[in-house]
Structure formats: C-alpha cells, structure tokens
Design goal:
single chain, 339 residues, alpha/beta, two-stranded parallel ribbon, 11 helices, 9 strands, 48% helix
Length: 339
C-alpha cells in the first residue's frame, strides 16, 4: 500500500503517509506549504526549485517535522535536469509514489506589448516543465504499475486571462495534456493523473512574476490560503481523483465561461483594465522569468491567511452574479438568433 493503514475509522483523514513525494516549485508559496504539509504526515520528500539556498531552508523545516528530505536544485525548463531529478529521487529512496508538478510563473501585459521571450519562458516553465516532469516519472510508474502524477493548473486552464495570454495558453495546454495522459494510461488503473484548479491564491507569485503592464499588480479579494491548496494535494496523494477545484467561484466561473465565453471575456477585460487604471505606476520587470525568485515566503501578504481560504459572502455573491450575468447574456443571445 502507498500509505499506512489507519488505526481506526475515525482516523481515516489523519493517518501518516509512507510515500516518496517529488515536489517542484518547492521554495515558496503553494510549494513550500505543500512540503511542510507532507513532512508533517511522514512522507519522504524530494524538493526541487532553481535556488539551493531557498530549498535548504524549506528542507530544514521539513526535517524538523521528522521527514527525510533530498534537495535537488532543478530548472524544469531543462528536460535533462528534470530527468536528473527523477534519477536522484530513485537513487535516494528507491521509488517515487507521487510527483507534483507545481511550478508556475506569469508575465502580465498586453500580448503584443510583452516581449516574446517572456511569453516563451512562461510556456516553457508552465507547460513544458510539467511535460518534462511527466516524461521523467511515467516510465517508473509504468514499471511499478502504480503512482500519482499531480498537475497544478488553476482556473486559468478554463477561463482565459486578458493581459496574461501566455499564461492562459500554458494552462489551457496543461488541461489538454492531462486529459491525453489519462487516456494513454487508462490501462493502468493504479496510475493516476490529477488536475488541481485553484482560484487566486495568496502567494508571492504576483510580486515574483514579470510585469509589463506599467502598473502595480494586486490580486482580487477572496484569496485562497496556500495551506488550503497544500491540504488538497495531500488528499490527492491519499485518494487520487481526476480533478480538484479550490476556492470560491472556481466552478461557477468555469460554468459561466462555458455558457457565455464572449460575455465572460469582455467582462474580465473590463475588470482588468479598470483595476490597472486605478493602480500605482510601476516600471517593467522580468521578475522571476529568467532568475530565481527573491523572497520565499508561503504567503503573499495580500490578505489575512486566516480569512483568505474561507468563502466570504461578498465573494459568493460576486460569483453567483457572474454566473447569472453569463446565463442572462446567453439566453438573450439565443433569443436574438431565434429571430
């Protein structure tokens, strides 16, 4: 079994893991929260990110929690480096039970006013990085006949984000990639491909990313606590399932886009431009596209970690209103076409 048997039915959500987990993007945000969550549950960890010093700090915290930890600095855009990551994990622990593709970067700005090199880098990290991870670990999963691959996607895999075209391209691509892998692995029922779709999460990712918008970036209210996402990843390691949605409005936003994509896109563009128009000016920056991030906290500091993960009445009403607006627009469009 990939995890210990619970001592009693009442402990079915608290028993310890005995899994080897490879985690990319482990130095901050969701990755760091996830490393600590798995360490607290007894997993063996292989932590990957670009900067060794940051990984060493996380590894020390995980070791204090009782985990055995291997640090492997890795740039996921380099397929050879990702293969070395898998080899190092196997050499140290003898097997891999869970591989979490968690790296995600972004570049904010109008598509044609953002350097093409920035777009390329976003796709290389977010899409190809996940593909490199899957390519490195799936032969091992096939040989064992079991294993869990978790792809961190986001609701951006369903809903296009204006001012983040490359990010949208990478996340839409990840969704299709995961679907294709699941089809190829259908003959191996104990090899799982899981997709995770959070809404906005309170991590340093916004400040770490590239910004070509000329304005200060700030995520919307109703942020998800990264520790909540970490708990979802932990639950997938225990009981894999196809998809997991995290955050208020995730499903309703996806539904609204499916029903009225043009209305949704126009609304998001209006909201984005309105938000940027009110923001303070900022110079262009490449952020962490080509260099490791500076600062490796779990939280982004945009909202209270105690409140960010809880559904709020305001956020719930906003999501409902968005869905209702999409439905009204779709019905109006149908009626107009009928005439």
């Amino acid at each position: 079994m990939p995890f210990d048997t619970p001592s009693s039915p009442a402990s079915s959500t608290s028993y310890k893991l005995s899994q080897v987990v490879v985690l990319t993007g482990a130095s901050s945000g969701i990755g760091r929260a996830t490393a600590l969550a798995f360490a607290g549950e007894g997993a063996d960890l292989v932590l990957a990110a670009r900067e060794r010093e940051a990984l060493d700090v996380v590894a020390a915290e995980c070791s204090e929690a009782g985990a055995r930890v291997l640090v492997q600095p890795t740039d996921v855009t380099d397929p050879a480096a990702v293969k070395q990551l898998a080899d190092a994990a196997l050499e140290r622990f003898g097997q891999i039970d869970v591989w979490i593709n968690n790296v995600g970067i972004g570049a904010i700005g109008l598509f044609d006013q953002t350097p093409i090199e920035a777009h390329r880098r976003v796709v290389e990290a977010n899409l190809l990085g996940h593909m490199h991870g899957a390519h490195a670990v799936l032969p091992h999963f096939r040989a064992r006949g079991c294993g869990t691959l978790i792809n961190m996607i986001s609701v951006g895999g369903w809903i296009p984000a204006p001012y983040a075209a490359a990010y949208s391209a990478s996340k839409f691509g990840l969704r299709g990639f995961s679907e294709a892998l699941r089809a190829e692995l259908a003959g191996l029922p104990d090899v799982h491909v899981c997709e995770v779709y959070p809404t906005f999460v309170d991590t340093p990712g916004v400040t770490h990313g590239a910004n070509y918008s000329d304005h200060r970036l700030c995520p919307p209210p109703g942020l998800v606590d990264p520790r909540r996402v970490a708990q979802v990843l932990l639950s997938l390691a225990r009981r894999p399932r196809r998809t997991a949605y995290v955050g208020i409005g995730a499903r309703s936003g996806i539904w609204a886009h499916a029903v009225a994509p043009n209305l949704m896109a126009r609304g998001m563009m209006w909201l984005t431009e309105r938000s940027l128009a009110r923001a303070e000016p900022r110079p262009h920056t490449d952020g962490n596209l080509f260099l490791p991030s500076t600062g490796h906290a779990i939280d982004g500091g945009f909202g209270s970690s105690k409140l960010a993960g809880r559904p709020s009445a305001v956020a719930g009403m906003a999501a409902t209103a968005l869905g209702a607006a999409a439905l009204v627009g779709w019905l109006a469009l149908r009626r107009r076409r009928a005439y």
